[in-house]
Known about the structure:
It is a single chain. The chain is mostly helical and about 475 residues long. It has three domains: about 25-110, Fumarase/aspartase (N-terminal domain) (Fumarase C, Chain B, domain 1), CATH 1.10.275.10; about 115-160 and about 170-365, Fumarase/aspartase (Central domain) (Fumarase C, Chain A, domain 2, Up-down Bundle), CATH 1.20.200; about 370-465, Fumarase/aspartase (C-terminal domain) (Ribonucleotide Reductase Protein R1, domain 1, Orthogonal Bundle). The protein has helices at about 20-30, 30-35, 40-55, 60-80, 90-105, 115-150, 170-180, 180-195, 215-220, 230-235, 240-265, 295-315, 330-355, 360-365, 375-380, 385-405, 415-420, 435-440, 450-465, and strands at about 155-160, 165-170, 200, 225-230, 275, 355-360. The strands form three sheets. A two-stranded antiparallel ribbon has the order 1-2. Strands 3-4 form a two-stranded parallel ribbon. A two-stranded antiparallel sheet has the order 5-6. Helix 9 links the parallel strand 3 (about 200) and strand 4 (about 225-230). The longest helix has about 35 residues, at about 115-150. Arginine binds near residues 90 and 324.
Amino acid sequence: MSTDAPSSHILWGGRFQSGPDPRFWALNASLPVDQRLALHDVRGTAAWVRAIAAAGVLTPDERDALLAGLERIAAEFRQGTFAFAATDEDIHTAIERRLKELVGEPALKVHTGRSRNDQVVTAFRLWLRDAVDDLDAQVRDLQAALVQRAEADLEVLVPGYTHLQQAQPMLLSHWWLAHFWPLHRDRQRLAQIRQRLNVLPLGSGALAGTTVPVDREALARDLGFEAITPNSWDAVSDRDFAAEFLFWAALLGVHLSRLAEGVILFTSREFGFLTLDDAFSSGSSLLPQKKNPDGFELTRGKSGTLIGALTGLLSTLKALPSAYDKDLQEDKAPVFRAYDDLRALLPVLADSLRTLTVHPERAAAALAPDILATDLADYLVAKGIPFREAHHIVGQVVQRAAAQGVPLTQWSVDDFRAVHPAFDADVHQALDPWAAVARRDVPGGTAPNRVRAQLEQARAALDNPL
Length: 466
Ligand code: ARG
């Protein structure tokens, strides 16, 4: 594609006596970005052709010739044979120019009653609707991978952390599922965004509505939109759907980044609970022993880029005075970029999870001897001691164990009784990590039976995200 300035403007040249400065042309043209809308623009234009034909603007012959031309153009895009011309300012002008080459005279009528303002936002909504459906399937597959992990790792105990300090033991499956539910909410959110996105702006003209008596409801049905916009000015300026999508992408990015950070920690030598498959790791150019979790680090990194895309678009939108201002041409690049980044990340994450190796023995060995301090306090509570007091007594136990360098698990009953007489011969049962997780027997808790129930809920949610 040439970026040279054309000598005449095919779309809006009538008012102009000289051609554009090539530097202005390069700045103004959006073809490098918006050519991705090609097939959706063809679809929108075909629907417009049908609508204005029904309104009497085109004869049936003209309509059929135009539709055949548009079909041919779609085929050229699909086959990669569409040839751009120097006069193509954006994808819309490129398609109209090609239509003229293929069909002749009738192509000059296609834009009757339409503006690029309502045209571009129609194509953009159509494109994003497909992108949203595609991303929903990708997020679903990542959820399926988390469910598979949770099924496989039901017998694995890991330390659970708060403040990145060991807090209480839990099932590794519980942790995988903890990252499933944010994605469930993401899919719910996406379905709601899709509803607001799936509204037809076409028929709004430049800003005030079209003079052609088109049936906008029929147009909406033709394009699979569920409703039509109620105000033409709002219709051409509204980019809420793009901003909502970018917020969705940013929040999904945050969720993915938290999962990634956890996996990165767990694959480090200090934790050592997980090892990534070679297919989803990279090496170091200098350090021969290194196996790096780059996919997860890129996830963490790109989550920052996704947040930037959202703030960038919101800044572009915030003070636009008119229905359409050229600032709006900046709307597509961040949306495409967010889609591309997520489309690249999600399958890699899903299969990285499916193929990683879990090391149950290392996870068990990592459980600190005092990780069951809460259970020891609960044990005293069961013996009739108020919790606050029990908490204090166990604090003394933990402190004495640390001072003596003898882990709690190796303490005798007498050692415990030396701190408080309420400790009994059954104290060691309170210090069994499997017994401890089994006691979290509440809906949403980490007891194995509850995690199994949660797995059932998760499986059901996969196919029923709402
Ligand atoms: N390339 C433009 C965009 O992406 C199309 C709309 C142009 N409209 C206009 N009035 N110049 O926003």
